[in-house]
Amino acid sequence: MPGSVATMEERDAITETAVSPELLAKAVQAVLRLEPAQAVTLRGRAEAILDMLIDEGVVEGIVETGIAIQARLDAYVELMSCPAMAEFHPARGLVSEECVLRAISQAPLRLREGRYRFCMRQLVILLSEDAAETGGEKPDLVN
After folding, report:
1. Is residue 143 one of the residues assigned to a domain?
2. How many CB atoms lie under 10 A from the CB of residue 109?
3. Inside any domain, residue 71
């Protein structure tokens, strides 16, 4: 529509598909079992995730769930390339892998400029709260 501002943030079936931390964890394990040549391809990761969903008995909405899992994992990997987010990598010891999986399963996912991305603020809040609740040091992005 002329004169209107196009929204830069969209919601769709993938952003609205709920994914449990348990399914995300199983998807990560399925992808980690792939040969390196397969793990770097979208097809290889998608097949591993869909096979895992079949093994888990997910039938209804399997395609949307598989894409939602892949989108959430990709969005997380993209965020971890940001230096300000490095302290939220489980290898740093401030947050556990379980904390990360809970956060990325709950954080709002949006389609922006053709890519699925998290609301960074909400993801940081979830990670910080979870780290504090589980006895870890509360990461501070202000400094």
Report:
1. no
2. 25
3. yes
